[in-house]
Amino acid sequence: MQFKSVISVIVLAFSISACSSIDKVVYRIDVPQGNYLEAATVNQLQVGMNVQQVQYLLGTPVLIDPFNNNKWYYVFLQQKAYQTPEQRTLIVNFDKRGLVTSFDLDKPLPDESKPAINNAIIQAENTAAKRWWQFWK
């Protein structure tokens, strides 16, 4: 009697631990937060632009320094599924007249013109070469 209960407890423990060891089964969406920064728009940013031009180009900043209104922070945080989150920060400095004096991007942005590694290129199959008896190919 004790032998059956010990075996059932062991089987139960193994079955519970087996379910918890499966990783990445549940689908997780990509979560972008903050100002979406693209390489094309950041490349258009130039020294000498005024506040309205920067806001039109990049949008409203996530943070304006409360002690220095002439420093804007654009923060972009993106977490793709089970990967570690990637944060990029763009700091735009203005002078007293409201013109851009400098800007600094902490990490380079990915180039959107290049296809991503995980994107598959789907090509149309040549259906003329297939015959009805070769449906498995």
Could you characterize the architecture of this molecule?
With 137 residues, the chain is an alpha+beta fold. The chain has a domain at 30-113: Beta-lactamase Inhibitory Protein, Chain:B, domain 1, CATH 3.30.1450.10. 24% of the residues lie in helices and 22% in strands. It has three helices and five strands. It has helices at 2-20, 39-44, 51-58, and strands at 31-34, 63-64, 71-79, 86-94, 100-105. Strands 1, 2, 3, 4 and 5 form a five-stranded antiparallel sheet that branches. A hairpin with a 6-residue loop joins strand 3 and strand 4 (86-94). Mean pLDDT is 80; it is low at 118-122. It is a lipid-anchor. Belongs to the BamE family. Its main location: membrane. Residues 1-20 form the signal peptide. GO terms for molecular function: protein-macromolecule adaptor activity.
Q: Level of helix content? A: 10-25%
- Report low-confidence residues grouped into runs of 5 or more: 118-122
**Overall geometry:** elongated
**What about the largest sheet?**
5 strands, antiparallel
Amount of beta strand: 15-25%
Under the CATH scheme, the architecture of the domain at 30-113 is 2-Layer Sandwich
Mean pLDDT: 80
How many strands in all? Answer: 5
Number of helices: 3
Distance between the termini: 57 Å
Structural class designation:
alpha+beta
According to CATH, what is the topology of the domain at 30-113?
Beta-lactamase Inhibitory Protein, Chain:B, domain 1
From the alpha-carbon coordinates, what is the Rg to the nearest angstrom?
27 Å
**N to C succession of SSEs:** HEHHEEEE
What is the CATH class designation of the domain at 30-113?
Alpha Beta
